[in-house]
Amino acid sequence: MKAWVLISLFALAFAKHEQYIGWKSYYVAPSSQDELKAFGSVVQQLDVDILSNPYLDREGVVLVEPHKQNSFTSALESYGISYRIHADDIKAKLDYDDQLIEEQRVASMARNGAKEMPYDNYQEWEVIEAYMEDIARRFPNVATLVTAANSFEGRPIRYMKISTTNFQDTKKPVIVIDAGIHAREWITPPTVTWAIRKLTEDVTEPDLLERFDWILLPVANPDGYKFSFTSSRFWRKTRSTDQHALSYLCPGVDGNRNYDFFWNTVGTSSNPCTDTFGGGRAFSEIETRVVRDILHEHLPRISLYLTMHSYGSMILYAWGHDGSLSNNAFGLHTVGVAMAEKIDELSLSHFPRYVVGNSVLVLGYGASGASEDYAHHIGVPLSYTYELPGLSGGFQGFHLPPRYIEQVCRETWEGIVAGARKSGDMF
Ligand code: ARG
Ligand code: ZN
Predict the structure, then answer these.
(1) Pocket test for ligand 1, best of 39, 178, 256, 285 (most atoms within 8 A of CB)
(2) Is 201 a catalytic residue?
(3) DSSP labels for 144-165?
(4) How would you classify residue 252: left for phi > 0, otherwise alpha for psi between -120 and 50, otherwise beta?
(5) Measured by CB atoms within 10 angstroms of the end CB, which terminus of the chain is less buried, N or C?
(6) What string of H, E and C letters represents the secondary structure of 1-60?
(7) Torsion angles phi and psi, residue 19, rounded to 5
(8) What is the pLDDT of residues 1-57, one digit of tens each?
(9) For residue 303, how far is its CA from the centre of ligand 2 (angstroms)?
């Protein structure tokens, strides 16, 4: 190799994560409902970035850029909310994560010979694509791969239709699950590829195939997902640059603020340079229009919609903009609890118990334009945001360590199974 190649490789390696110099992350632990609400207001006011949602006496993790750190800590102190530093050297933690993932990748290749879908490491976009193609090829009678549209940067946005009758039996309820609308939430796509596996390669609940049709979209935001692997670990939004005069400097829209339900009203921003920018208009993003169109296409038949996020060990339901309850609040809560109980059974000592409730009540902040509210608003009776478990207490990096990925997939599947069956019984 030529010397200049080595030198530029070296420079590139060192440039990674450099953008986070001076940033800090904090553990926060509100210990009462008032403190949780106060925490929510601080987040709103300073527009800091929640990596993991806290709950009562349960630590969350917040990422804060340098010029906001003083205001952040003094605001917490003024409300008496306890906090401690999580990382004062973000770059070191990210380098540690990279190293862990690389070691895991090598080990995983050695074990699986790059053939099987990895659940002992995070799943890159290309790997998920290849997996879905393979499933469609191997299970042509039940699995169809659909390219819904191309993302802003031109990547196919693809979902898997799973049905024993090619969606022709219109009496069957449909279950829709998406993940990866928030790019950095890497634990979410594997839970959906796991669902694909459990409905094709490794069927242990045949009633779920007999009773339901499935639409499974593991990576709703491929541009952002890719970008979070290659360039910026904490990237959350899409990568569009056509939303605002400033969008070339600050690309991207928060997909979970872009839906047309109380769009651009609470917990969202009209400044494209923030992480909760709701877009120039509702459904400005192809990545959210794809999900919207799926919901409308199958609407009268959808019994359950789940959208996967991280972290927090939470199952959240409407209404997420103002904390009021829907007409179906009892059903939402009952099925939410049923899902959580099944997950907790399998989770045991791994993670904290799931919290189930109205999104504003549980999170401490409202946010409008979210997909779970939109789906419920247009008539999906059971619609939930999952905040998957991870990133609290004792982890050394920002990832849930790769060895926990399979655990999360397995237990989340238990929640999906319980939710599906209940939704079918009530439909
Ligand atoms: N962490 C998720 C987000 O910020 C929570 C969404 C909850 N749902 C809601 N309708 N606000 O997008
Ligand atoms: Zn999210």
Answers:
(1) 256
(2) no
(3) EEEEEEE-TTS-EEEEEEE-TT
(4) left
(5) N
(6) CCHHHHHHHHHHHHHCCHHHCCCEEEEEECCCHHHHHHHHHHHHHHCCEEEECCECCECE
(7) -60, -15
(8) 445 444 444 444 456 888 899 999 999 999 999 999 999 999 999 999 999 999 998
(9) 22
